[in-house]
């Protein structure tokens, strides 16, 4: 769970809440398995991915602004910044894939 604090709580905590919502919807879908539940689960997964990418873009814009004002940036600092910046879109992508997987499971149980 250290990656949540490293990736910035402003974007990582809402992503974690979206993951929890998808898991709750999956459990609900195992009971009633409605089209609405599957659709909401898929849309929340897509939203999580796009929200993670938004976090990356905002972070990189801030970082590029600081880099442009600095005279000398070490490559290690730059690489570390990119690593931290990529945490939120990666977490969003994992949430998206979990949502898709849960949706596929619910569709296969529908028959």
Automatic annotation (TrEMBL):
Q: Domain MotA/TolQ/ExbB proton channel, which positions?
A: 32-97
Membrane topology classification: Multi-pass membrane protein
Please tell me where this protein is predominantly located: membrane
Q: Keyword Iron-sulfur, does the record have it?
A: no
User: Which parts pass through the membrane?
Assistant: 6-26, 46-64, 84-107
Task: State any GO BP term from the record.
Answer: protein transport
Q: Name one GO cellular component term.
A: plasma membrane
Q: Does the keyword Transmembrane helix apply?
A: yes
Q: Which Pfam families match?
A: MotA_ExbB
Q: Where in the cell is it found?
A: Cell membrane; Membrane
The record's keywords, sorted A to Z, are:
Cell membrane, Membrane, Protein transport, Transmembrane, Transmembrane helix, Transport
Instruction: Name the family the entry cites.
Output: Belongs to the exbB/tolQ family.
Record's protein name = MotA/TolQ/ExbB proton channel family protein
Query: What is the source species?
Result: Polaribacter dokdonensis DSW-5
């Amino acid at each position: 769970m250290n990656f949540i604090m490293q990736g910035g709580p402003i974007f990582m905590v809402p992503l974690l809440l979206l993951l929890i919502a998808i898991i709750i919807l999956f459990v609900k879908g195992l009971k009633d398995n409605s089209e609405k539940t599957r659709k909401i689960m898929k849309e929340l997964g897509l939203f999580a991915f796009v929200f993670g990418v938004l976090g990356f873009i905002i972070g990189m814009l801030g970082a590029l602004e600081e880099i442009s004002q600095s005279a000398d940036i070490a490559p290690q600092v730059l690489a570390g910044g990119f690593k931290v910046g990529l945490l939120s879109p990666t977490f969003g992508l994992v949430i998206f894939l979990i949502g898709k997987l849960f949706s596929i499971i619910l569709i296969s149980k529908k028959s």
